[in-house]
Amino acid sequence: MKGYFEKSPLTPLCKRGGSIPEFCQSSGVFQAGCKISHFGKGGLRGILSSKGSPLRSVHNQQGVALVVVLLALVLLTAMVVEFSYGVYTGTNDLYNWRDSQRLSVMAKSGVTMAAKLLQNKDLVSEYTGSIEMPVENPFEDFNGIITLRIEDEDAKFNLNAIVPENGILDETDTKSPYNCFKRLLDALKLDKTIADRVVDWIDRDSAARLSDSEAGAKNGPLDSVDELLLIHGISKEDYDKLLPYVTVNEQRDLLIVNVNRAELPVLMSLLSTNGEETAKRIIESRKSKAFKFVNDFNQIAGTDYGAERIKFDGANFLIRSTASSEGVKRVIETVLDTTSNSVRYWKEY
Ligand SMILES: [Ca+2]
């Protein structure tokens, strides 16, 4: 490490204002500037690589500064990306919320529209079972569609009627709601023991009709058809088959069905003999002329139902209003009592 500079390194060059001296490869000395002797074995590389070398120190400082700058750039880039992503997701959430609110308003508008339609008795009497109405682009600046479905709940089987208020089932009476429900299950090719499971779910006692039919039973009437899914032993497939034909009503003393709109399986449940054939005959008959009197129905059905068991018009209607736009949808299901103009059930999802 000896003899690289005869005076303090670099300082003389700066004082003289000289340029960086040229290095002679053959002699190993600088040709101008301050007097510099031979570099020894390592040559200039040896100087630059030597510990404590001023040139080395300057380069180290520059390297550290470069690393710091690069780290700062990486940090800033990460912050910008994070901020951009946050703005992007926040904006998307805002748009989704706005569209969801619009769809909700659309669905509610559909319910209002259906309620108005139901006030028109002539229109209501024209359809049997259910009606569907699409309404396209209800808002000027929003592409979407409302689909309305109206179903007569009084034309369905009231599950709560299976167990009367006094809890006593008349299993010997072929026209009892319990036996009618068994015929409905039979018409839908479902296990008839489902009737016993529903009975144990509703009746107040805990005496099981089947080995597991009181498991987790509510021991009270159903508040909605969805409760069927909670009953032990009733599968989703069973529920899907039953859903179009059953309803729940607080009326438990009698099963009352609107025979002018009841569908085939529900009509079959009312008939103790020749169910399918007679039910088809009833449907054919009401196509030409709706039933208005009990005797007219009994004559074709071969039954002796009184006016307390059958009716000829509906008062409770299920409205399913579906608002959809670009694959996103909002659904409102509600049951309106058009007699008292009250809402009996409301679900939005
Ligand atoms: Ca029970």
Name the CATH architecture of one domain: Orthogonal Bundle
Mean pLDDT: 83
The ordered string of helix (H) and strand (E) elements is HHHHEEEHHHEEHHHEEEE
Structural class: alpha/beta
SS strand fraction = 5-15%
Hetero compounds: calcium ion
Which blocks of ≥5 consecutive residues have pLDDT under 50?
1-40
Please identify the top-level CATH class of one domain. Mainly Alpha
CATH superfamily of one domain: EpsJ-like
Main sheet properties: 5 strands, antiparallel
Principal-axis shape equals elongated
Q: Within the largest sheet, what's the order of strands?
A: 1-2-7-8-9
Counting DSSP H or I runs of 4 or more residues, the number of helices is: 10
What's the Cα radius of gyration? Answer: 43 Å
Helix content: 40-55%
What is the CATH topology classification name of one domain?
Answer: Ribonucleotide Reductase Protein R1, domain 1
Can you offer a commentary on this structure?
The strands form 3 sheets. A 5-stranded antiparallel β-sheet has the order 1-2-7-8-9. The longest helix has 65 residues, at 54-118. Helices cover 40% and strands 14% of the residues. The protein is α/β, with parallel strands linked by helices. Mean pLDDT is 83; it is low at 1-40. Among the domains are: 11-50, no CATH class; 151-348, Ribonucleotide Reductase Protein R1, domain 1 (Orthogonal Bundle), CATH 1.10.40.60. It is elongated, with a radius of gyration of 43 Å. It contains 10 helices and 9 strands. Calcium ion (CA) is lined by residues 200, 203, 205-206, 214, 217, 219.
